[in-house]
Amino acid sequence: MALNLISPTEIKSVYFFDASKSSHHPLKLQGGLAFRRKEYGVSTSKRVYCLAQPPPPAWPGRAVVEPGRKPWDGPKPISVVGSTGSIGTQTLDIVAENPDKFRVVALAAGSNVTLLADQVKTFKPQLVVVRNESLVDELREALADSEHKPEIIPGEQGVIEVACHPDAVTVVTGIVGCAGLKPTVAAIEAGKDIALANKETLIAGGPFVLPLAHKHKVKILPADSEHSAIFQCIQGLPEGALRRIILTASGGAFRDWPVDRLKDVKVADALKHPNWNMGKKITVDSATLFNKGLEVIEAHYLYGAEYDDIEIVIHPQSIIHSMVETQDSSVLAQLGWPDMRLPILYTLSWPERIYCSEITWPRLDLCKLGSLTFKAPDNVKYPSMDLAYAAGRAGGTMTGVLSAANEKAVELFIDEKISYLDIFKVVELTCDKHRAELVSSPSLEEIIHYDLWARKYAASLQPSSSLTPALV
Fold it and tell me: Residues in domain 1-deoxy-D-xylulose 5-phosphate reductoisomerase N-terminal (predicted)?
């Protein structure tokens, strides 16, 4: 079924009032949203121009090692939040290969008790948490024959305890969604460096999280391959040297499809990534390019680049993971096989570089590759880009609403409740509805509130619903 709504590609322009400019002239962009910023609690009966300063970036276009930041002896102690997920298991693979460099002090998982019990037996953490409280007895039973008996805490509070473990220096945030926000905030308040794999931390929580990280002198180290590439490229840059960020994208399942075929896309089509096998949600995000739009927002929060200075380039081979341009027009790139373990490793080891065996970490062979190609993304095929840039420029709670609405829309598409093109429509309508309630400098509670609101509103746009919203 398809929603009988206006397509984003049929909208002629987007109007913003850009608070970063000295004047209030509208910035006209292509896309389908017209945002107005407002402060929370201000009447929506009048237009309000928000002049709030953007949050300080995690890394202002450069990465400088501060002296005396090694407050531990021996292997670096880490906590892993989301240990049984993709990021968590790959992190533990790295620990297993480098026991002289890292040790695990605490683990938190959702409901995969069998895998969690195996991890406990292997890595012997002091604290273990299963978020699903009903599975605590099952976990204790699974560990009954283990010589190592860690402390076991159930529930959300237990996850926060893992993030704040007193012995941990770095916390790997591999938990998905806004559920990862509270543990990350708690870890920052406890002075832990963050190995960031949770997108919502910055996309939804950036306006709150970044000032908090600066207050507690905490480092946010990106574990995504694209942002790790940028982070690696800005090592040693002098202040003000960063000119432009270039995010590379595979182009997803439909990079070679003509636009007029997209109306016929089936779920199975969207799940055929041309380069690798991933989870359903991220594979669909790669097809729509929403994953890259969200990374644009993350890049703004991580490195302080203006949205006009962040570009997306289609790179089908997925070997160059991203690039930066310096003020003198030099372009620096980070290359490697598509393997999430490398960015995770650098997140854990920074500023050090750890030797990797050629057996488990294949080295890049450019001669074997032969060629690397690039092309500009098609805004008609990928309206997600205009939506993401628009939400990013609106700032505040709009970016979290964009992310949450996309997550719900992808879920509806995978469940065959909406069509592929409806993903863009649902996200656009949800963001458009939110503009009257946009909070420019939100609290943590407001961020979580609007995340939940966006999911609920996006779900209400199903064809079976009596609600038939329209753009205003």
Answer: 78-206
Residue 216, token pair as written in the block: 């507690």
Q: Which residues, in sequence order, are CB contacts of 375 under 8 Å at separation 6+? A: 313, 314
pLDDT of residue 218: 96
pLDDT digits (tens, 9 = 90+) for 421-430: 999 999 999 9
- Ranges of beta strands (E only) in 242-368 are 242-249, 310-314, 320-326, 331-335
What stretch of H or E contains 82? none
pLDDT at 361 (0 to 100): 87
**Cα–Cα distance, 472 to 470 (Å, whole number):** 6
Around 183, how many Cα atoms within 13 Å sit in the side-chain half-sphere?
A: 36
Q: Would you put residue 134 in left (φ > 0), alpha (ψ -120 to 50) or beta?
A: alpha
Report the pLDDT value the prediction gives residue 176, as an integer from 0 to 100. Answer: 80
What three-state secondary structure class fits 283? helix
The Cα 426–Cα 405 span in angstroms is 7
In this predicted structure, what is the pLDDT of residue 82? 95
Those residues of the chain that have pLDDT short of 50 are 6-51, 464-472
Say what percent of the chain tops pLDDT 70: 86
Residue 397: strand, helix, or coil? coil
Token representation of residue 128? 């273990």
The SS3 call for residue 180 is: helix
Domains in the chain and their CATH numbers? 76-222 (3.40.50.720), 252-288+378-460 (1.10.1740.10)
Residue appearing with tokens 């473990």? 165
Dist. CA 274–CA 257, nearest whole Å: 12
Residue in this structure with the two tokens 């302080």, named with its chain if needed = 304
Per-residue 3-state assignment (H helix, E strand, C coil) for 8-64: HHHCCCEEECCCCCCCCCCEEECCCCECCCCCCCCCCCCCCCCCCCCCCCCCCCCEC
CA angle 282, 283, 285 (to 5 degrees): 60
Task: Return the ∠ at Cα 429 (arms to 427 and 432), rounded to 5°.
Answer: 110
Q: Which H or E run contains 224? A: none
